[in-house]
Amino acid sequence: FRGLEPDARLDDGARLAQALFLAYPDPRSLLPSSAAAAALAQVGLAADVEVCARTDALVVVPELAAREGAALRFRPVYPKGV
Description:
Number of strands: 2
Organism: Oceanithermus profundus
Order of helices and strands: HHHEE
InterPro entries: ComB-like, ComB-like_sf
Distance between the termini: 21 Å
Protein name: Probable 2-phosphosulfolactate phosphatase
Shape: globular
GO molecular function: 2-phosphosulfolactate phosphatase activity; magnesium ion binding
Structural class: alpha+beta
Strand content: 15-25%
Pfam families: 2-ph_phosp
Number of domains: 1
Largest sheet: 2 strands, antiparallel
Radius of gyration: 15 Å
């Protein structure tokens, strides 16, 4: 799998995400029919779906840093060498 460390161990959520990616390599084919896309369209933000569906647009990914009540706090994680 692209970008995965050779010795990486995937949890259930990661395995599901990987299976979904392999079945639908272009997320734009699924997102327009999602409830989230419909909600964004209702408030005039339909264009955000296309922006959020971009792949490999950034070299940083979010990692969950902490849970604060119902809120989640993330920190940026950069690939090795960046």
